[in-house]
Write a structure and sequence with these properties.
alpha/beta; Glucose Oxidase, domain 1; two-stranded antiparallel ribbon; 14 helices; 25% strand; globular
Length: 561
């Protein structure tokens, strides 16, 4: 019955929106130059839908991508991240009428300076073994390193004091993901005009190489001497993989190795071998910034468009580039052309999740708390979260050189367009209309990453930056893709399709334009009843019977990027 009601609402909203017509466009400005509208009067020829000639071109967005790629790893608060945020700020400040706020947060920044691994039959004789990287925020060792016997504990074997104390633990890195059939089971709708997704129902969406904080915590609790993660891909394909990215300063040293080195280590552990690992790192105070850019509209119940600025590459995360292009587009018009206020929120600390414990999700969670209060006061309408645009697909295939493990191969496909959406007729129908209009095939609108459970809302995990907004019972639409290379610096422009990047960005601009014209109640959907339920449960203490996020309650940990 719920799906039938949503489809009927979708038809009604689609019919209402399909009658909108646009105005004469003005060519978009060059990507890295000040927007041309700063030198002339703002446009009053309002567009009901986004005219492509008024918007950033494919070439403009690609120049943005090349700029982002030039920064390299943007670990939270490192110099590259700070420079990128400053660049974004300078571009936003050039947009007429835009109001910019910044928020600074203190962190303890960790930066690796050197690392090595030695192995041998005894601690008296060791040989160097190449590593693929260091686990972020792992413990620095004494100058002489930490030496201990090796023990291999495969996935499924708990790391305990009995099997790990005083030893260097070897742990396999699994590839986690979700079966496509399971995704279809939690879909509000699927747009698959050429049936390409239908032909892959027996496959899966791989979304992580599972270097996990859970293993780090277990090894730390077990008083292991160290931890080495064993990848199933060659070392050059997993260099400096940045995970876990909680920002937890671990009390155990941990390295990562590629599949060839992993095979050597397993054999050595089976024969009673030893290893010595060395890590040098700086641990120093730093600050990291969040930007909130506001374009006032005729109504102040704002649409929030959000993404994070820290990441490993030009893919993770290029959401801010799309936001900059959209802010420039909407900023070329007089405020009377914007039916709603638009807030572009450039969050920080996605790679330092525990920015303010016990809250996770970096500054996104802090902003979601504020937006929760704004929503209750009628000052906010919905959150649109954008991550990993234009992602091409990498496949894990048998190694061409016959070596151990697999290798990553770039395909001619793109990653699934996955949209996580709360139960909202306005969001779901408007999204479907725009996905069809912009011909973004293989698109799934999903309830969440899993089946509904005993919590409020029933689907409370959106697989990434959208999590804090849905957990705060805000109408939310979160876009995310999950390539296997996401956490690894070095995979960059070659993994991004410029045409797809442009189409997705233009679609989101069109979506925001259409949502600006919808009644707040239609966008709210189930959030209205859910927020009433939450208030009742939290006020009476009945929240102990169901997992619900009350004031001051830390949100559930995320299970995906």
């Amino acid at each position: 019955m719920v799906r039938h009601r949503l489809l009927l609402s979708a038809l009604a909203v689609s019919a209402a929106l399909s009658g909108c017509t646009g105005s004469s466009p003005t060519p978009a400005s060059n990507a890295d130059a000040p927007p041309s509208q700063s030198d002339r009067a703002l446009r009053t020829d309002c567009e009901d839908s986004v005219e492509p000639a008024s918007f950033a071109s494919r070439e403009d967005l690609w120049e943005f991508e090349k700029k982002l790629d030039s920064y390299g790893l943007r670990a939270t608060g490192n110099p590259a991240h700070q420079a990128y945020v400053s660049w974004l700020q300078s571009k936003l400040e050039a947009i007429p009428g835009l109001e910019l706020q910044t928020s600074d947060y203190p962190i303890r920044r960790w930066t690796e300076t050197a690392a090595s691994l030695e192995i041998g039959d005894s601690m008296a004789f060791t040989l160097p073994l190449p590593i693929s990287g260091v686990v972020p925020y792992s413990l620095a060792t004494p100058a002489a390193g930490v030496g201990a016997p090796l023990v291999y504990l495969p996935a499924g074997t708990d790391i305990t004091a009995e099997n790990a104390a005083g030893k260097i633990v070897l742990r396999d890195v699994d590839i986690t993901g979700q079966a496509n059939a399971a995704l279809a089971a939690v879909a509000w709708w699927i747009y698959d005009p050429d049936l390409s997704f239908a032909r892959q129902l027996t496959g899966s969406m791989n979304n992580a190489q599972g270097v996990t904080g859970k293993d780090m915590e277990a090894a730390q609790t077990a008083n292991a001497a160290g931890l080495i993660f064993l990848h199933d891909f060659p070392r050059q394909q997993v260099l400096d993989l940045y995970r876990p990215y909680d920002g937890v300063h671990w009390m155990i040293p941990a390295l990562q190795v590629g599949s060839d080195e992993a095979a050597q280590l397993r054999d050595l552990a089976a024969n009673g071998g030893y290893a010595r690992l060395k890590i040098s790192a700086l641990d120093e105070p730093a600050t990291t910034r969040m930007l909130v850019a506001t374009l006032p509209g005729t109504a102040d119940d704002a649409l929030v468009i959000e993404s994070h600025t820290d990441g490993t590459s030009a893919l993770w995360d290029n959401g801010p580039l799309a936001m900059l292009a959209m802010a420039r587009y909407f900023g070329q018009f007089d405020a009377s052309c914007r039916a709603r206020t638009l807030k572009f929120v450039f969050t920080t600390a996605h790679l330092y999740q525990e920015l303010m414990p016990p809250w996770r999700s970096g500054s996104a969670n802090l902003y979601a708390q504020q937006m929760d209060r704004d929503y209750a006061a009628g000052k906010a309408t919905a959150a649109i979260v954008i991550e990993h645009l234009g992602a091409r697909k990498y496949a894990a295939i048998p190694r061409s050189d016959g070596g151990p493990g697999q290798e990553l191969s770039l395909t001619d496909q793109h990653e699934l367009n996955t949209y996580f959406v709360t139960e909202s007729p306005g969001l779901l129908s408007s999204l479907l209309l725009q996905v069809q209009k912009h011909q973004l095939g293989e698109s799934l609108a999903l309830r969440g990453t899993g089946l509904p459970g005993a919590h409020l809302p029933l689907s409370n995990n959106f697989g990434g930056e959208g999590n804090p907004y849905v957990q705060h019972l805000l109408p939310t639409l979160a876009f995310i893709t999950a390539p296997l290379t996401l956490f690894t610096p070095g995979y960059s422009l070659e993994g991004i399709d410029p045409e797809l990047l442009h189409a997705q960005t233009l679609m989101f601009a069109d979506l925001i334009q259409s949502l600006s014209q919808l009644p707040r109640e239609l966008i709210a959907g189930a959030a209205t009843a859910e927020r009433l339920q939450r208030d009742l449960l939290c006020a009476t203490g009945l929240d102990i019977a169901i997992d619900v996020l009350c004031e001051g309650t830390p949100s559930a940990p995320e299970t995906a990027p």
